[in-house]
Amino acid sequence: MIIKQIRLSNKAKDQLIRLKAKTGIQQWNILCRWALCLSLNDNTVPTNVENPPDSNVEMTWQVFAGDYADIYEALIIQRCLNDGLTLDPVTISKQFRLHLHRGIGYLAGTNFIKDSVDLLELALGK
C-alpha cells in the first residue's frame, strides 16, 4: 500500500467539483484514477510543488484504488524507476500525490472535458 489516507488540496477539490458537474461522475475516486493515469502517461517528471492536504476530500488507498490496488501501486513504482527515483516509501507516496494532483489539474485545466464521453475519447487518443 502506497499510502493509507489520501487527502486532497482545496484547489484539487474545487477542480474535481467542476469535473463532477461536467462529467456526471460523482465519485471522487473514479475521477482521481483518471487523473493519476493521465499524469503517469506524461513523460515529464511532475513539478515538486506543495499540495497541502487542506480540503475535506479524503479517501483510503483501498477506496482510491479498489480491486486494482496492486496495479496502481506497480504503475507508480515503475514510474519512480523510470524517473530515476529511489523506491523508499516517502518518495513513492510523494510521487503518487504529485502525479494525482498534476493529473487533476490536467483534467480540469482543459476545455476538452465537457462530459464523460470526452474522458473516453481522451483514453482512446482522439
Could you describe the 3D structure shown?
Strands 1-2 form a two-stranded antiparallel sheet. It has one domain. Helix content is 61%, strand content 5%. The termini are far apart. It is globular, with a radius of gyration of 14 Å. The model has no long low-confidence stretch (mean pLDDT 93). With 126 residues, the chain is mainly alpha-helical. The longest helix is centred in the C-terminal third of the chain and has 21 residues, at 89-109.
Summary?
The protein is mainly alpha-helical and 126 residues long. The chain has six helices and two strands, in the order E-H-H-E-H-H-H-H. Strands 1-2 form a two-stranded antiparallel ribbon.
What is this structure's SSE topology?
Elements: E1 5-7, H1 10-23, H2 28-41, E2 58-60, H3 61-65, H4 69-82, H5 89-109, H6 116-124
Antiparallel strand pairs: 1-2
Helix pairs in contact: 1-5, 2-5
Distance between the termini: 33 Å
Q: Structural class, from secondary structure content?
A: mainly alpha
Task: Please state roughly what percent of the residues sit in beta strands, choosing from under 5%, 5-15%, 15-25%, 25-35%, 35-45% or over 45%.
Answer: under 5%
Largest sheet: 2 strands, antiparallel
Please list the strands of the largest sheet in the order they lie side by side. Answer: 1-2
Q: What is the H/E string?
A: EHHEHHHH
* H/I helix tally: 6
Shape: globular
What is the percent of helical residues? 55-70%
Task: Give me the count of strands.
Answer: 2
Number of structural units classed as domains: 1
Rg, Å, rounded: 14 Å
Mean pLDDT score, rounded? 93
Report the uncertain regions: none
